[in-house]
Structures are given as C-alpha cells and as structure tokens.
Design goal:
five-stranded mixed beta sheet, alpha+beta, 16 strands, BirA Bifunctional Protein, domain 2, 17 helices, eight-stranded mixed beta sheet, Rossmann fold, 3 domains, homodimer
C-alpha cells in the first residue's frame, strides 16, 4: 500500500468547521438581507481574471501579494485580491446593459499572499456594497444607514460610525500652502492614534516639508471633536476660503442631518476629521466603523466616495460610493466578545434511533416535523442510547424526540430538553400542535 | 493619458449580473435550508490546496484540467476541482475533533480548465452533502429524501430520482464469469441510452471480451423496468447465488420501502439498473436525478455510497454516502423551462425622489417600511419622474410609493402597481397597516 499523504492546509489558509461556518453563514445571510432591503442586487465575477485587469489597480503591495500564474492556455492570470477591481471591470463591461444608478453587493472570497504574522489569512470573505452612477448625497446617507441596520440586525448596539470627507483635508492643505502633499500628510495622519501628535508632526515635517505652524493647523483639524454642530463649525473655520474644503464640510453637514432625521444620530454616528482611509481613489466622504467594546480590532466596515470607478477600462465616468464589511474580522470579534452560539448543528432536534425495526417510523416522524419548518436529524444507527445522547450533546442539539417500544405502543413520544434533561410526554394524535409549539420555542 | 484596458473575462468564465445572480442565490438559499433541516452542517475549505493533496484523486482528466502553479513561496499548489477531495482531506484531518457520524454540506465554486465547447464553464458552483462514518441504510434513504425535498422546495414536481446499487452489476458479472471487467462494462453500459443495446454489446465484446450470451445477461439487467416489486424480483433472479449481488438487491429493497413509507414513491423514485455513475469510488447505492421536462440536460443531482472516503490521508475507515446538486446546470434548466423570475432587484418597492427638499422624508418613509420587513429602494436623485419610472420598469420593481408636494401636504402617499399602473391612495397616519398589507402582497 502506498504511503499516506499528510492532510494539511497551506500556510495562511484555514478550514471552517461547522462551529465557525454556522455563524459565518448567518453573518452572510444577514448582510444579504440588509443589502437587499435597500435595493442592492447581487452580482458575482470570476475568481480568476487576466492579470492585466488586476495589476496596478490596488497598490504595489496588492500586486506583490497577488496569486499570479500562467494557465494551461499560457494566459497571464491572477486570483482577485479584492472585489472592487473586478467590479470596476464588470461595470465598464456591462454598464450599457445595466443602466445607472446601479446598486450591487458582492459577497465572495479574495486571496492575498500576505505576511501571515498578524493573524491574517490569505483567503478571506469580503462583503461589498456600492452605488454607482450618481453623485447624490442620498447614496452617501444610505451607506451609513445600511451599516447601522446591518450591525443592529447582527444584535450589535454598541458601535460608532465615523464619517469624514477627503475634501476637508485638501481644503486645509490648500489654505496652509501644502496642496501637493496630501498623500504624505494622509500617511502621517493615519498613525495619529498609534504614535501621537508629536511624532505625526515630525513625519509631516520630514516627508511633506510641513513647518511647525502648518503641522499645528493640520493636527488641530484631526483633533476636532464634540457635538456635530461644534465640530462642523470648527471645520468651517479651518477650511474657510477653500471651495473644496467648504464643499466637504457642507456635505458632512447634509449627511449628518439626513442620517439623524432617518434615525442614525450621535453617539452611533460621529464626525471624525482624523479618519482618512489609506486608499488613494477616495475623493469625498469616507467612513469607518468601530465596535465600542473592541475598538482595537480596527474598522469592521469601511468605504468612501470615488469620482470614477472604472477609468482604466472605459471613458464613461462612473462616480459612486461603496463600503465593505470585513466579515471574517467581525466574526473574530464576535467570537472574542463571546456572543457567538457554540452549536455545531443547524437542526435543533435529534431523533434517536432506538428500535431497530422502527426506522420507517422515525423517518416519517422526522418528515412530519420538517414540514412545520423544524430542523430534524435522525441518528443513522440503532446504537446505545447513551452514545446517541452524547452525540447530541457534542453537536449542541436543543431537543431529543424519543420513541422506544413503550412509546410506540402508546402512540406517544418524549420531548427531552437536552440542556436540562427535563422531559415531557405528548400523544402524537391529539397533542401534535402543542408539541410543535414546544419544539419551536428557543 | 494611458490607453484603456479592454474589460473582459477569461475564456470559459462568466459574470453573474443580478438577473442571473438573484435566482442563483435563491437556489443556494433553498439548498442550505433543506440540507440544514436534515442536520447537515456547513463547512468551508480553502480554494487552494497543496497539489499533492488534489492530484491523482479524481481522474487523469481532472489532473490535466487542474489550475496548478507555484506560489510565491515556491509551493506546488492547485485550485480545487471538486468538493469531494478537499472534504476527504478535511475529514482525515479533523475527524478526531468532529466525531462520527458527521454530516456536512459545502456550497462553493470549483475550477476546471475544461474544453468550453459544450456550454460548460471553467468555474462553477457545487452544492455537496455527505454523511460519513456510518454504513446504515438510514443515510442512503435520507439522501433521496433530501433530493425530493430540495426539488419540491424549488417548486419542481416533475422529476425522477433513479437509484441503483453497484453491487448488483458486480454480482451479475460474478455469475457470468466476468468479475474483473466491471470498469470496462460500466463504461460501455453508460452509453446505453445514447447508442442502443447492439453497440453496447459490441463494445462489451471488444473491451471486456464478453460473449453474446454474457452481453445478453448484462443488457437484460440494464433493461429491467416496471414496478419496484417486479424489477426487484428480476434483479433477484439475475444475481441469485452471488452474495454481493443479493446484498445490492436487498439494499435497494430496503431503501425503496423506507422511502415510500416516508412519502417518496414511484414515479418520483425509480429503481434503474442501468445507471452506473462514472466514478470509480462508489461501492454501493448510486443515485441520479432527472427533470421529466428536460431529461436531456442530464442528472441534476447525483451521488452514491463509498466504502472509504479518505484512505489516501488516514488509516481510519470512513464509509459514507453523499450527493451533489449541479446548481448551475439546474439554473440553466430552470431558465430554459421559463420558470425563473426576471427581476433585477431584490427589493419590491421603489420610492421615487420627487421633491428636492424632501429627501429626509423619503429616507424616513423607506426606513419605516423596511422595519416591517419590506425591501425599499429610494431613487438617489430628483430626476424627472418619467426617467425614474423607466428605471423602475427596467429593474422589475413591483410597487412605486409616490409622494409629491400635494401628497406631503395631505399626509398621504400613492401606491402604484407598476405592472398595471393601478394606483391607490393611503393616509400615512391612519391607513399604515392596510398599506403595508398591500405592499406585502405579491
């Protein structure tokens, strides 16, 4: 006999057993439901694309991390590293048929050959939603309302959605005479929470030639805080005279007022002039979302407005706004917060297989229960009852529906709540409805 | 400015726009719900595996079709070409933690660099479900019950589930003295429907050295038909004296009796001694499923029992049974049968944006409707109403909920059924419940 192959996954990849996959599916289901409730429609694109389509669209880093190879037809191909670049290609290709505005969501895995040191994986699920073909503030408000609905639908109440507008920093840089330096300044500002104001000022001096005075103004922008009105007034003063800057402030004023009127107000919504988002293609509002009980894991839902999604593939201008839920990061957070259910089964009911010649009856009973919407597993072998209940326990079933010789004789069954052992007897003919009601209770 | 990159997908790959992705998601959702209702739990495994894990597990063909390359760490890796081989690796690796019986489903894309001539794609979704760690007939019955529930849940009533048992042919070959030739015989038999009995007999003579008499017996096996009892009695005679053959017949007798007692009877279930399934690893019952109105597309849900899933990776014997729903094939069939809805939106309601200064009111109304479970899109810009209704039409919305200046003044809104133009007015304060009931109707 040949030698065994060691069963193992590649470095940076992982299996999802049921206890992880059940909550992951439930997150995806909730995301789908909320996205759909706003009129976002699903799309899918191939995992593999021409490398030409993917390269040079994210950053040098994403190019380096891409899984890229020649296929059997000698094509230069790559596995997608995000869902935005494929969406840009998709939009350019199909926008004529689709029409605008076009609202899509896309839930799918992406691959990055990242350094795996920080508990990051090389395969992870992204959940993106975008509205393209409109520059209306209505779409920006909607993005933050979707995030609020999504988190509330997941049972999370303690979160803060941070919004900012890229034009505000541009306006301030214009005013202080540093307009060419926004990338370097953004990179420095991004570290504010980690390294503090002094080190950020140093970096701004080194990399963008900012004087101490200039640095002070920029830092005072990033440190604005308080009630929305107060912050907006401060921002107004800091950008006054710059058209771009004032547009950014007016936009945030609209978004926060509209959101508040639709039911998303402080402290769940916060104007946060310090957030910037790393990606260069954002041109207007940007958004990040933090869990109040676990801010250190970083933003779990981020995005922003862009002027033109698909400029590399089409001359048609496609402005829009979108955001992405970091599903696997959120899953890890919910696990850490201890709010994930621990079951390994999606069916609450186990029917033990007692009487070897009664399999037909067990199967019939299971089907009858399923027809009421209940999930029911029939144990496949007439093993010892202790073994079957141990199995039920291990998998996390809620109920056992038990029929032995005496129950069959009397036309009844025992409903056992597995956590407590508490048992109730029901007559199948006369108590069916009451029994189903009990089994449908949590 | 640099030149535009032509937006296109790789040969054999395709995009799923909303009108295809909405029914595809709904198929997946239904599959998940039905699998779960039987206690199958979801798992996921990486798209990429060590090539060593994947190679030589399917067939020469799958090896040749595999997307295989060296990653940045110089590992020899491949993209999975099915979900069975990764499941075998997964089971070998985790069975100690998981325990048996273990029931899993896995819905995920797979990749094969196939010849794309026959309308096949190089990326497609598989929906597998398996029970491992048991040799009980209960699991075999369950597989066909799941298939029945699944198709009925999809609104399909006209289908036939064909079952057979591999041991029956083995028994017959044993009896006629051709026991070493089962692979060649299977290959010939697989063509029975296409080329007819005479040509199959020829091939059996050529490739397996079967005499005309031997071929006759084998063909009489494949051509058995009629009521279950009649077929089973014929099979009994043809295998009589071969232990393996008789085991196979007894197994089918049990499965069909148990299935019938649980509500799956002819003509939806059929004992079909001619079906074989190409794959070598099946050792017991095999199953194929055909749509009565479109049998030519082939089996849409197929599977079978195997003695040992993961023998290449572990010494632990893992017998089981599983099947796979051909999701994209079924989707194509439903499209051809004209039973797919044609909408491009998952939300039934559009709120046109009429009054430029009323955006807050539209957003509030949308949220209030969403809180009842309805899907509502707000058009993002105050464009001409004709343009907005054209958009609604194109996307397939069911309702428009309309508020213009006069409606705001009077505290009412107009509910327009878009297909007919029929319009009803509701007072928001007093008629809310009636309005929601109307919007919830189909």
């Amino acid at each position: 006999m040949s030698e065994l192959i060691v069963p193992r996954t590649l470095k940076g990849f992982r299996d999802y057993p049921p206890e992880l996959m059940l909550p992951r599916e439930s997150l995806m289901e909730t995301a789908r439901r909320v996205y759909r409730s706003y009129g976002f429609a699903p799309i899918d694109t191939p995992a593999l694309e021409y490398a030409e389509i993917l390269c040079g669209k994210g950053s040098d880093e994403t190019d380096k991390q891409m899984y890229r190879f020649r296929d059997a037809g000698d094509r230069d191909v790559g596995m997608r590293f995000d869902l935005t670049v494929p969406f840009a290609r998709f939009a350019a290709q199909h926008v004529g048929d689709l029409g605008t505005p076009f609202k899509r969501y896309h839930i799918a895995p992406v691959w990055r050959g990242e350094n795996t040191q920080r508990g990051r994986y090389r395969e992870f699920m992204q959940c993106d939603f975008d509205t393209i073909g409109t520059q209306s503030v209505a779409s920006d408000v909607e993005i933050v309302l979707v995030i609020q609905d999504l988190l509330q639908a997941l049972g999370i109440e303690r979160f803060t959605i941070h919004i900012n507008d890229r034009r505000i920093l541009s306006g301030v840089l214009e005013r202080v005479g540093l307009e060419g330096q926004s990338t370097a300044i953004l990179r420095a500002l991004d570290k504010l929470n980690k390294v503090g104001a002094a080190r950020v000022a140093e970096e701004m001096a080194q990399c963008a030639g900012a004087s101490a005075e200039q640095a002070d103004v920029i830092l005072s922008l990033a440190q604005c805080q308080g009630a929305h009105d107060v912050v907006l007034d401060q921002l107004q003063r800091l950008t006054s005279g710059s058209t771009r800057g004032e547009e950014g402030v007016a936009w945030l004023r609209d978004v926060s007022a509209l959101a508040e009127s639709a039911g998303l107000a402080p402290p769940q919504l916060r104007i946060a002039p310090s957030i910037a988002r790393g990606l260069d293609y954002y041109t207007g509002m940007v958004v990040e979302t933090f869990l109040d009980d676990l801010p250190e894991i970083g933003s779990i839902c981020s995005g922003g407005r862009y002027d033109n999604l698909a400029g590399l593939y089409t001359k048609q201008q496609l402005p829009g706004i979108g955001a992405s839920l970091g599903l696997d990061r959120l899953l890890a957070a919910l696990e850490e917060l201890g709010v994930l259910p621990r079951a390994q089964t999606a069916a609450p009911i186990l029917i033990p297989f007692f009487e070897p010649h009664r399999l037909a009856d067990y199967l019939r009973l299971a089907r009858r229960l399923r027809s009421t919407g209940l999930g029911v597993e029939v144990f496949p072998e007439p093993k010892k009852i202790g073994q079957q209940l141990k199995y039920a326990d291990r998998r996390g079933f809620t109920w056992a529906v038990i029929q032995g010789a005496s129950e069959f004789e009397r036309g009844v069954c025992q409903i056992k709540r597995l956590a407590t052992g508490e048992t109730q007897e029901f007559a199948l003919a006369s108590d069916w409805a009451a029994m189903v009601r009990l089994l449908q209770s949590p």
